[in-house]
Amino acid sequence: MTTKKLLHEREKELQSLLTTPQGREKLEELAAKYHAVSGKVKPAGASAITYILVHERQHGLIGK
Fold first, then answer.
1. DSSP 8-state class, residue 43
2. Residue 56: CB atoms within 10 Å
3. Are 62 and 10 spatial neighbours (Cβ–Cβ below 8 Å)?
């Protein structure tokens, strides 16, 4: 059984990716993957992190 990460844990994990160009690229790739799966476009002004967190919560991948 896999334990879900808490929202704040996942947010910190994603924020740590912002520190490197490779990490930022990884965030954009993940956001693009989630867009392909859901078909939902990232709202203007929303960060990739917010988009990823919303998607993961809606799909039960992270807890509160």
1. P
2. 18
3. yes
**pLDDT, tens digit, 9 for 90 and up, residues 17-62:** 999 999 999 999 999 999 999 998 888 888 999 999 999 999 999 9
pTM of the predicted model over 0.70: yes
Residue 24 and residue 60: Cα distance in Å, rounded? 24
Q: Is 5 helix (H, G, I), strand (E, B) or coil?
A: strand
What are the residue ranges spanned by the domains of the chain?
Answer: 5-63
Closest listed residue to residue 15, CA positions, set 61, 49, 51: 49
Amino acid (1-letter code) at residue 27: L
